[in-house]
Structures are given as structure tokens and as C-alpha cells.
Design brief:
Organism: Rhodopirellula islandica
Distance between the termini: 81 Å
Helix content: 55-70%
CATH topology of one domain: Rossmann fold
Shape: globular
GO biological process, one term: regulation of DNA-templated transcription
Keywords: DNA-binding, Phosphoprotein, Transcription, Transcription regulation
Largest sheet: 6 strands, parallel
CATH architecture of one domain: 3-Layer(aba) Sandwich
Pfam families: AAA_16, GerE, Response_reg, TPR_MalT, WHD_MalT
Protein name: Transcriptional activator of maltose regulon, MalT
Radius of gyration: 34 Å
Length: 1131
């Protein structure tokens, strides 16, 4: 019996190929083809096929909805999804819709034939690659009813993640070990939390440890020595709160002070080393397990603003999964915005957390970067309400402490508060020695130690070995220094010399574990110290209570107490030659490098005087770093290296070019490319393969420069060489080459060839790196946008969303939101445009600066065209702040400002802008929405003088020609429309009509509507005289329906002015600001206000800022109080 098949796919060529393949089978006959879900539903009812081969992602009704409708009405028809998507989300949705199986497009052709026969015989067929997804879900459902086995549904991959969480690894360490992105690990972690019915990351961590997930696994080695994966520089040990020992003496009077300060935004614990600051705070938190607390131990490395923020976000997300999305996305940008902007982003994220928590910054005195201080200073000006910040430091941070005290936003515990009382001294000595001493000895210790807890602990260690403890205490005359001497001679001096030697060598390390100790102290294994393993050394340190602090829950990593480390470092310098100390740093660098811990490897290599080794470490990590879109890591590492070393190594110069490329500093990287050429020529003599690969990268950048210079032929020549030369594992370079090559091919009129090449990349998903897939689909979207094929662009953007989500790429999601927002705007779909563009604008620092400015300009116009003038103005203020904060050219801002004035019919700003210097021509190359040179033509048309119309005519002639030569249909439509109006005003009606007809013909296939609507009534007058065939006439009717009539007035958002009791005028509050004020009076969080008003948290922040300014108040409390006094809100 012949099996009848209906083939459904939106690509005609793919349908034809499937038809030919299936028709070759004797028992299978293709009875029809459908290009989308709607057509599939119709043909299924007409043809009644046995089997439907169904694509998923199609324009209009997708394959999931089509399957659901077909199976519900025609239950005997079997549907087989044939898709590129192997993700669990798509598989589950299709199976729930009623599909009889699931086949991947990457499968061998005979697999689909086998699947058709299987489902026709009432079997279920699954591609092997996704069968695991289905089975794991089935197991999860089976185990769901068993409350005693909540982890039964976790996949092998998820179990691996839970195991690493139990071992104390951070998100970035897990991502590096699994060679994936941190975003994907976070997504998996959220999925696991949901599957296990847990509340948050803290519960997951405790659950994993309670279930002994981490037992039997290696806990130290991040990677084997031959691992090629990059280990990003974030240390999970920094988040470990000090463990309070069982014999710890709690200080109730200080704990009570901390309890009373719990509603204050900042708690400052400030005293010299050894006063028990960290342990006091740890004890306080331990006594309040119900209070969420994130702990971060700082080092000098966190003086770098990006590093500091990365750790802060990771610490907070350890308590609240996904808590800081905006800050996380900003941190992935190649260049960071200003401190003010970062503080706003972090403040918004923290303010959106819906329960109180404590953030502890320990060892804050190690922070030397002014930017970090500025960030916290800004954050504390409007402190997030859920957060209580605890800063532990040896000296005052450079905050405005006086202002904080004045606002009663600061609680302080200082040296005099932390001094031990006589009773506390007695209790501490009793805990340490097990005996008590008399009042005289206690008074003596209180006087000499000045309440210094580490000093008391040292004395306690010494007293243990004294027969006459009272006499020993009475003989102490030198205070702290004498205790140091006792420590050296009586404690350390009694240790075996090999052990003393190891302790001194370990003092070069800020943290250590057993394998690292062995690598530094006994690299050859035949030294006098070799009888002691690293584990033995650490065990003896703990037994002797020699001031080491565990850094993780598994007690794998440790550090010395700072006082003890300083003492050992002095001894090391006094007893070992400088060359030997440099050798120790060299061994440490080797070990860290083998583990992929790049920052520490570089730091120790430089301390060893091995600049060449440090350079080699950076060179070896370059490609992995670029593949992870982490050029900022490269930038930081390059800043550590001597300039002379960088200039001698082509790999490092190429790393610098990548950094400049991502910062859009094209003029600078052109000079570096010239510097590279002779170095690559020298390398050619020694290593032809690596030289060829590097020359491929140079070709990429040369092609990029030629593309933006408009030299299409030269650009394509370089880019084709790049594709030939760049190795398959250099995913970042190949991805960027695909992008520029696609755009250059489009510009050269090779659109179809470009799309075909990109499609071949996307079809090879199983062998293609996700970075390259994402760039390929993004380039496809761009080509469709430039061609004004907006429906194709929307479809490609929907595919891009799936690929970006599957790979956890926030960067790709941001670009997708930006491009899809533009498409919706150009199709005059303002609500959809605002939704997408707002998402992109929220991540504006993740986009490159030109795209970010364009997104804000597009959002402002979309608001304006939708009658939301206040939001348009707020967006313009944001654009201005963005331009100023990054010191960018203000051309796009001024152009957009003029464009909005034209739409509003406000002539003076337009005239003023026209008197400024004409903007540079950039219209022909890409799809920017706001192009200043084109907006200048709009302004010249609005000016409507003989001179302005003549200038507009000349400019538009050039733009039309350039757009045609570069095959930029999007820009050509705009230029033709403006040209038709200019020619009409010059009474050249025939030429005007010709330009208009061309524009309509080009715009109609993609429903490119905005550019007509934006020109208002003058364009409507031209369209009323338009003659065309039925299809185009229908499009013209749509245009006329969407162009507002002159008498249609936009609603004003402004309310009546309000006056104070003394009669002075308060600046007008908008209706949106009044709404915000009402919600402030209800004591809602910004996140709750944003949800209530259906706006972003950023918009709420803007409203609140304007309310403060207009009511002349400083904070929310004052704003609500004044509003009540003025009758703006109800009591």
C-alpha cells in the first residue's frame, strides 16, 4: 500500500528536494506541498494524507499550532516534525501538539524515509540525537510522584552541574569546565531548581551538599593539564563566608548593635588587622539563618571595575538566581559605560529583588580603584531598598560618610567598639588554653593587646607551653612586637626546618590548595621537603592552628591570615635570595597556567620577571577568549604586559586589534595592522601554518575597513582570502568574516549567493560552533533588512531568537530585539516595535555604540508616532546621556531631535540644526534607522525654501545613485520618497510620479510603510493621484489609511500646574509622574510600579528622578510627604 505524504516547509527548494527523495521510494507518494502552517491545515483537510512532514519555524502559523489543529480534527493523520531544533522546548511542544515523532534536518535522508514508514505503522519515531531529551523527561515525570527521590528526573548533564555546585564551583567555573557560556549554565540552574521544586540557588546548594553530590569527585583540579578550555578569572572561593568555629566567643553586645542597624543601608566595620571584624559579621549572619546574605572577599584584582561588578553580581545571584540581568548584560559589553550608568543598572537590579538581603564586602581596604568607590558612592545616594551593605575594612572608604550619617543611613563599628572587654579576654583565653588567669594578668593583656583578638590568640598559643602563666603574662612588655617575636621563635621556631621552609614559600600565594603547595614547594619531588605532601602540610597547619582560613565549604582552598602571611613574607625575603623567590613565582605561574587560571598565571609570571612567559599565556588564551565574546579579558591582560613585548609578538598585536575592533576604534587598528605585516612575514619563515592563520585575520580586518570605505571589490577580495586562511577552530574570526562577507556581497549585488552561503552554514548545525551560527543568522536578517524584504527579515529574526536562546547569548538576543524592533517600526507596528526596542535599549551597552544610538532613536520615533510624547522625550534624554557618557559624536542625537521636530511640525529646532555642519554621508552601507545625512534632506524639505529644496535635490540625486550602486533598497525607498516630494514642489510632476512609483514598488513586498506615514499629508496628496494595478493599489490604500489626517490631534499628557501653599509654581507633573507618585505612596518597589504601569524599571526610575526635581525633594519619603501636603495623593 502506498503511503501518501504532505510536505510542509517555507523553503520551496527544500520542499522540492524532499519531494524528489520521497517519491524515489516505491511505497511513498508526495501528494502535496505547503509553504506555511495555514496552507498545511487547508491541504490536510483536502488531501487527507497518511503522513505530514512538518517544519516548525514558519511565517504566520507555525508547525506546532498547525500540528495541534490537524491532529485534533484529523486524528488518523500522522505528523512528523522535521526541524533544525534539537532543544527540549521544541521537542516537548511538538509531541504535546500530537506529533508522532521527531526528526532532525541534520539526519541522514534514509532516516526520514524510515520515520515515515514507522509512524504510518502506528509506531513513534525519534531521531537518536533527541531521544535522550524525551526519555529524560519521561523519567522525570515517573519520579515526580516520589517525594523521596526528587533528583530522579535530572539529566546526566544537569547532574554534572549539580555535582559541581556541590563542590563549590562558581557559574563561570562550571561554564568553563563544560566549554559553554555562563548564561547557559544559569539557565540550566534555573531549570534544575524548578525540577527539584526548590526556591533558590542557596537551597539548591544546600540540597546538593546534603545529598552528597560532591563526594568522590576531584575538588581542586579545574582541568587536566592537556585541557584546551579557557578558565575565566572568577574564583568561587571568594563567596565563602568564614566558618564560625565551635569554640568561638560570641560578642553579644556587638551582635545587638548589628541587629539594631539592620534597617540602615550601610554598615561599616572598620578596624586594623586582627580585630575579628570578619568573624564578628560571620557570627552575626550565622545567628540569623533566615536572613539571605551574599558574602564577597575582595582582593586587589577587584580594583578593576568590571571584575568588581562581576563578583558582586555573582555573589548576589548565588542567593537570587538571575537577580541582576541588566548588570550582567552590561558586563558582557566590550567597553563599560560610566560609573553613574553602572550604578543605576546595579541599583535597578538590586531594587527589583523582592526580599531583604545582606551584601558583605570583606577586605574592602584592598580596593584601589576610584571607579569602584565611585560606583558604591552613587549606589548609596539612592540605596536599593532590599539591600543592607556591610563593608569590612581596615580604613575608611572614600565615601561621603558625613552625608550618610546625616541621613541616618550609616551604622559604624570601629576599633574602640571591637576592643575586647576584660570578660571577653578571659573567655577567649579560656577557650584557647582551657585555663583561666587572674585579674592582674587579664588587666595586663587588655592593656597590651588593646583588644586585638589575633594578639590574644597568639598569647593563648604561647601560654599553653608555660608552667607559670601569670608570670609569662607579667613579663610581656613589648606588646604586639614582642608577641611577633614569640611567634617566630617559640611557635614557628619549634617546627621542623623543611616545614618552616614550606610555610615561607607558600606566603607568595594569596590562596593555596594541596597540589599548588606541592608545585611551589617541591617541584622535583627530591627536595628535603619532599616527604611532606601538600595535603600533609595543610593538615599540619590546621592541627597547629597556624592562622589559615578555609575558602570553600569543602575546605580544599585556604589562605593565610594576613598578619601571618606578612610575617612569613618578611622571613622569606630575609632567608632566601631574590632569584629563588622569583623562581617560586615562576612555579606558581606554571601551575595556574596549566589549570587555565589566566589572571593568577600572568601575575605570578610577571612577579617572576618572566614577561615572555606572561605574553605566551595571553597568546595561548586569545582564541578561546574571543570565542567567548570576552575581548575585555584580553584588554585587561594586555594592559598587564610591557609594551615592548606586545610589539614583538604578532599574536598579541592581533589581540590588540580585536580589542580595538570591538571598541570601534577603526583608525587606530589600521595602524596596528600595518605594524603586523612585517612580523607575520618573519613568522612565515618559521611557522607557515600560524602565519597563514594570522594573515587570515588581517584579511578580515582589511576587508572590514574596505567595506566601510565603500570599496566593495577590494573588501570581497580580502574576505575571501580570510575564509581560506582562517583555521576552523578560530570561531570568532570566521563568524565576523561571515558577517562582513555577507554584507559586502549584498552591496555588490550578490544577495542570493550570500544568502545561499549563509544557509549552508546554518544547515550544518551539528558541526558549526554556536557563535558562527548566531552571526550567520544575524547576517541573514541584515541582508533582508537592507533589501527591504521585511517579512523574510522577521522570519529570520524569529530563527535567530531560537538559536540565541538555545545558546544563552544575551548579546545575540539584544541584536535580535534591536533588528526586529526596526522591522516592526518600518511596518508601522508601533506597539510591537516599542516592545522589542525597549528590550534592546535596556541592554544598550551590550550593543556597539552606533547600534545602541540607533535603537534609542528608533524607540523615540516609535513613541512619537504612537502619540506617547513623554516617553519619546524620556528616550531622547537617555540617548543624550548615553552619548555624553561615552563621549560619542552627537550627530545621531541631533539628527533624531530634528526628525522628531519635523514630525511635530516644530520648525525652529529644524532651522537651527540646518545651520550646523552637514553630517557625513553614511547612508549606503547598512540598515541604520537614523541616518543624519538623510534626515538632513527631510529638514531641507521642511524648510521649504528655494535654496533648501535645491540642496535637497542635489543630495537626494546622489543618495539615490549610491543606494542603487550598493543595492541598498531600504535607503533607496527613503531617498525616492523624499525626492518625489522635492520634485513635486518644483512642479516636476512627471519625475515626481516616477520616483514615487519606484518607491511604492520597492516598499510593497515587505510592507515598508513608516517612511510614507512619517511624511504625513504631503505624501498623502501624492498618493491620492497614484495609479497602479490591483496589488499595488491595495498597498496604497493601506498607506493612505495609516497616514494621519491634519485634524487628528495627539492627546496631551500634561496635567494642570500645581502650586505650593505660598503660591510658588511647582513644575508641571505629567500624568505618568502622577501615577508613579500614587504608587510610591503605596510603598511599592520599582519593579512592582513598572509592572503596574506596563513600563520598564528604567522608565520608573526616570519618573522618580523627575518627581524629585519638580517637587524639590531628595528622597521618596519626602516626595510622598510633600505630595500629600499639596493634595497630589490621598492621605
Amino acid at each position: 500500500m502506498t503511503i501518501s505524504v504532505l510536505v510542509v516547509d517555507d523553503h520551496a527548494m527544500f520542499r522540492k528536494g524532499l519531494r524528489m527523495m520521497l517519491d524515489d521510494e516505491d511505497d511513498i507518494q508526495v501528494v502535496g506541498e505547503a509553504g506555511d502552517g495555514e496552507e498545511a491545515i487547508r491541504l490536510a483537510g483536502e488531501l487527507l494524507p497518511d503522513v505530514i512532514v512538518m517544519d516548525i519555524t514558519m511565517p504566520g502559523t507555525d508547525g506546532i499550532e498547525a500540528t495541534r489543529q490537524i491532529v485534533s480534527t484529523l486524528p488518523r493523520v500522522k505528523v512528523i516534525p522535521l526541524s533544525i531544533h534539537s532543544g527540549k522546548r521544541f521537542v516537548q511542544k511538538m509531541l504535546r501538539a500530537g506529533a508522532a515523532g521527531y526528526v532532525l534536518k541534520e539526519s541522514a535522508p534514509e532516516e526520514l524515509v524510515h520515520a515515515v514508514r514507522a509512524v504510518h505503522g502506528d509506531d513513534i519515531y525519534l531521531s537518536p540525537a533527541i531521544s535522550g531529551v524525551v526519555v529524560s523527561e519521561y523519567v522525570r515525570l515517573l519520579n515526580r510522584s516520589d517525594s523521596h527521590d526528587r533528583d530522579g528526573g535530572l539529566s546526566e548533564s544537569d547532574e554534572s552541574i549539580v555535582r559541581m555546585i556541590a563542590e563549590g564551583h562558581s557559574v563561570k567555573e562550571i561554564a568553563a569546565a563544560r566549554e559553554t557560556s555562563a548564561s547557559k549554565v544559569q539557565t540550566a540552574r534555573r531549570r534544575i531548581i524548578k525540577a527539584l521544586d526548590l526556591a533558590n540557588v542557596a537551597e539548591l546548594t544546600e540540597y546538593a551538599r546534603a545529598q552528597r553530590w560532591g563526594e568522590g569527585e576531584t575538588r581542586v583540579e579545574m582541568a587536566s593539564s592537556d585541557s584546551q578550555s579557557l578558565r575565566v578569572s572568577i574564583l568561587g572561593t571568594k563567596f565563602h563566608r568564614p566558618t564560625v568555629p565551635s569554640d568561638f566567643v560570641s560578642r553579644d553586645r556587638l551582635l545587638q548593635i548589628l541587629d539594631e542597624a539592620c534597617d540602615v543601608p550601610l554598615i561599616l566595620v572598620c578596624a586594623p588587622a586582627g580585630y575579628g571584624k570578619s568573624m564578628l559579621v560571620a557570627d552575626w549572619l550565622a545567628k540569623h539563618n533566615e536572613r539571605r546574605a551574599a558574602w564577597l572577599s575582595l582582593s586587589e584584582g577587584e580594583s578593576d571595575l568590571r571584575s568588581f561588578l562581576t563578583y558582586v553580581v555573582a555573589a548576589v545571584e548565588g542567593q537570587f538566581s538571575g537577580a541582576c540581568p541588566d548588570t550582567t548584560s552590561v558586563l558582557q559589553a566590550p567597553g563599560l559605560p560610566t560609573v553613574n550608568v553602572l550604578a543605576d543598572a546595579l541599583g535597578n537590579d538590586l531594587d527589583a529583588i523582592d526580599e531583604p538581603f545582606v551584601l558583605v564586602l570583606d577586605d574592602y581596604h584592598l580596593i584601589a580603584g576610584g571607579d569602584v568607590h565611585g560606583l558604591l558612592e552613587n549606589l548609596l545616594q539612592h540605596p536599593p531598598r532590599p539591600m543592607r551593605l556591610v563593608v569590612i575594612t581596615r580604613h575608611d572608604p572614600p565615601f561621603s560618610l558625613a552625608a550618610l550619617r546625616g541621613n541616618r543611613w550609616l551604622a559604624e563599628l570601629r576599633q574602640q567598639d571591637l576592643r575586647f572587654t576584660r570578660d571577653e579576654v578571659s573567655e577567649v583565653l579560656s577557650q584557647i588554653t582551657g585555663v583561666t588567669v587572674g585579674d592582674a594578668a587579664l588587666s595586663r593583656l587588655e592593656q597590651l593587646m588593646e583588644g586585638w583578638i589575633v594578639g590574644l590568640q597568639l598569647v593563648g598559643m604561647l601560654i599553653r607551653n608555660c608552667d607559670d602563666k601569670e608570670a609569662f603574662v607579667s613579663q610581656l612588655q613589648g606588646g604586639v612586637h614582642q608577641v611577633y617575636d614569640y611567634l617566630l621563635h617559640e611557635v614557628l621556631g619549634r617546627q621542623p626546618l623543611p616545614f618552616q621552609n614550606c610555610l615561607q614559600k607558600m606566603s607568595i600565594l594569596d590562596r593555596f590548595c594541596a597540589p599548588l603547595v606541592e608545585a611551589v614547594c617541591q617541584p622535583s619531588g627530591d627536595s628535603p621537603d619532599s616527604a611532606m605532601t601538600g595535603a600533609h602540610i595543610i593538615q599540619r597547619l590546621r592541627q597547629e592552628n597556624l592562622f589559615i582560613v578555609p575558602l570553600d565549604a569543602q575546605e580544599c582552598w585556604f589562605r593565610y591570615h594576613q598578619v601571618f602571611q606578612n610575617l612569613l613574607t618578611q622571613q622569606l625575603d630575609n632567608t632566601h635570595p631574590a632569584s629563588e623567590v622569583r623562581g617560586l613565582h615562576g612555579r606558581a605561574s606554571d601551575w595556574f597556567s596549566q589549570q587555565g587560571l589566566i589572571d593568577e598565571a600572568i601575575r605570578h609570571a610577571l612577579a617572576a620577571g618572566r614577561s615572555e612567559q606572561a605574553a605566551e599565556i595571553v597568546a595561548n588564551a586569545r582564541l578561546k577568549t574571543l570565542t567567548g565574546d570576552a575581548s575585555y579579558e584580553l584588554e585587561r591582560w594586555l594592559d598587564l604586559l610591557p609594551e615592548s613585548i606586545i610589539g614583538e609578538r604578532p599574536e598579541l598585536l592581533l589581540a590588540r586589534v580585536w580589542v580595538l575592533y570591538f571598541h570601534l576604534q577603526f583608525e587606530e587598528f589600521s595602524a596596528v595592522l600595518d605594524q603586523l605585516e612585517p612580523l607575520i612575514a618573519e613568522r612565515q619563515l618559521l611557522d607557515r601554518a600560524s602565519a597563514s592563520a594570522m594573515r587570515g585575520e588581517v584579511d578580515l580586518f582589511r576587508g572590514y575597513l574596505e567595506f566601510f570605505a565603500g570599496n566593495c571589490a577590494d573588501s570581497l577580495g580580502h574576505l575571501h582570502h580570510a575564509i581560506e586562511r582562517i583555521p576552523a577552530d578560530h570561531h570568532a574570526a570566521l563568524s565576523e568574516t561571515d558577517l562582513v562577507l555577507g554584507l559586502a556581497s549584498q552591496m555588490d549585488g550578490q544577495r542570493e549567493q550570500a544568502l545561499e552561503r549563509l544557509q549552508s552554514i546554518l544547515a550544518n548545525t551539528h558541526a558549526m560552533h554556536p557563535t558562527r551560527q548566531i552571526r550567520a543568522i544575524a547576517t541573514t536578517v541584515m541582508i533582508h533588512m537592507i533589501s527591504a524584504h521585511l517579512h523574510d527579515a522577521i522570519f529570520a529574526a524569529s530563527r535567530m531568537k531560537g538559536i540565541a536562546a538555545d545558546n544563552g547569548s544575551i548579546y545575540a538576543e539584544s541584536w535580535r530585539d534591536y533588528m526586529q524592533g526596526l522591522i516592526h517600526l518600518w511596518q508601522n507596528q508601533h506597539a510591537a516595535a516599542v516592545g522589542c526596542l525597549n528590550k534592546a535599549v535596556d541592554r544598550r551597552y551590550l550593543l556597539d555604540s552606533r547600534a545602541a544610538m540607533d535603537a534609542m532613536a528608533a524607540l523615540a520615533l516609535s513613541y512619537e508616532m504612537n502619540g506617547e510624547r513623554f516617553e519619546a522625550e524620556a528616550t531622547m534624554r537617555m540617548l543624550r546621556e548615553f552619548v555624553d557618557s561615552l563621549r560619542l559624536s552627537a550627530d545621531v542625537f541631533h539628527s533624531c531631535e530634528a526628525r522628531l521636530a519635523i514630525v511635530r511640525g516644530n520648525r525652529p529646532p529644524v532651522s537651527r540644526w540646518l545651520k550646523s555642519a552637514a553630517p557625513a554621508d553614511e547612508a549606503a552601507l547598512i540598515f541604520w534607522h537614523e541616518v543624519p545625512c538623510v534626515t538632513r534632506c527631510r529638514a531641507l524639505l521642511a524648510e521649504d525654501s528655494e535654496a533648501s529644496l535645491r540642496e535637497a535635490e542635489l543630495r537626494l540625486e546622489a543618495y539615490v545613485q549610491t543606494s542603487e550602486e550598493t543595492h541598498n533598497t531600504l535607503n533607496l525607498i527613503q531617498a525616492l520618497l523624499l525626492q518625489s516630494l522635492v520634485l513635486h514642489r518644483s512642479d516636476r510632476n512627471a519625475e515626481s510620479a516616477e520616483a514615487l512609483h519606484r518607491a511604492v514598488a520597492l516598499a510593497q513586498p515587505g510592507d515598508c510603510i513608516l517612511f510614507f506615514v512619517e511624511l504625513g499629508e504631503p505624501m498623502a496628496e501624492l498618493l491620492h493621484g497614484f495609479t497602479a494595478d490591483d496589488a499595488v493599489a491595495e498597498f496604497v490604500d493601506r498607506l493612505l489609511a495609516e497616514i494621519p489626517k491634519p485634524d487628528q490631534q495627539k492627546d496631551s499628557e500634561l496635567a494642570e500646574p500645581t502650586t505650593e501653599e505660598d503660591g510658588s509654581l511647582i513644575e508641571t507633573l505629567t500624568n505618568r509622574e502622577r501615577d508613579t507618585l500614587e504608587l510610591l505612596a503605596q510603598r511599592l518597589y520599582d519593579k512592582e510600579i513598572a509592572k503596574s504601569m506596563s513600563v520598564s524599571v528604567w522608565t520608573v526610575k526616570t519618573h522618580v528622578k523627575h518627581i524629585f526635581e519638580k517637587l524639590h525633594v531628595k528622597n521618596r519619603r519626602e516626595a510622598v510627604q510633600k505630595a500629600k501636603e499639596l493634595g497630589l495623593v490621598k492621605e
